[in-house]
Design goal:
It is a single chain. By secondary structure, the chain is of the alpha+beta class. The protein has a domain of about 90 residues: 4-Layer Sandwich (Glutamine Phosphoribosylpyrophosphate, subunit 1, domain 1), CATH 3.60.20. About 50% of the residues lie in helices and about 15% in strands. It contains five helices and five strands. The strands form two sheets. A three-stranded antiparallel sheet has the order 1-2-3. It has a two-stranded antiparallel sheet with strand order 4-5. Strand 2 and strand 3 form a beta hairpin. The longest helix has 23 residues.
Length: about 160
């Protein structure tokens, strides 16, 4: 991890010192882990003036990859394959949300509802000013409708296969 490790360690030390000054006790390991993870997360998503939005995946070894769409977790290989087939540079917001939910559905355990998933969107501007309200979660009614449409489509396909 080389230089990345040194930067993260320095951030963790500063965070630990700040916490100690404020609360007069050392932070728990969990608090430090969250702090370091947020630093790593902050730098995996960016906006470049020439190329637009960017998403990076960082491996503990220090390797990194740029992605247009990616997945992590239990079923990530199948999810990445699914995204590679479905994603394109001209995708509309509605299609991107639908594709995201279909990708989640492939590895989802239990019943998928509007209360069991969250989808956010970020408005991209060249210069962000103010309180940072350019990010927001998708409206729950809209999310419920999209999930319902996907479930109804699955039921229709299943019934069609039985005949």
């Amino acid at each position: 991890m080389g230089p990345d490790f040194r930067v993260l360690l320095a951030k963790a030390r500063k965070s630990e010192q700040k916490y100690k000054r404020i609360y007069n006790e050392y932070p728990s390991t969990g608090i430090l882990v969250k702090e370091v993870a947020s630093v790593m997360q902050e730098f995996t998503q960016s906006y470049d003036e020439t190329t637009g939005p960017a998403l990076y995946q960082v491996d503990p070894s220090g390797s990194y990859w740029a992605w247009k769409a990616s997945a992590i977790g239990k079923n990530m290989i199948n999810a990445k394959t699914f995204l590679e087939k479905r994603y394109n540079d001209d995708i509309e917001l509605e299609d991107a949300v639908h594709t995201s939910i279909l990708t989640l559905k492939e590895g989802f355990e239990g019943q998928m509802t509007e209360n069991s998933i969250e989808i956010g969107r970020k408005r991209i501007r060249k210069r962000v000013r103010g309180d940072g309200r350019n990010s927001r979660l998708l409206d729950i009614r809209r999310l419920r409708k999209i999930i319902s449409d996907i479930v109804d489509n699955d039921i229709d396909q299943t019934q069609g296969e039985k005949h």
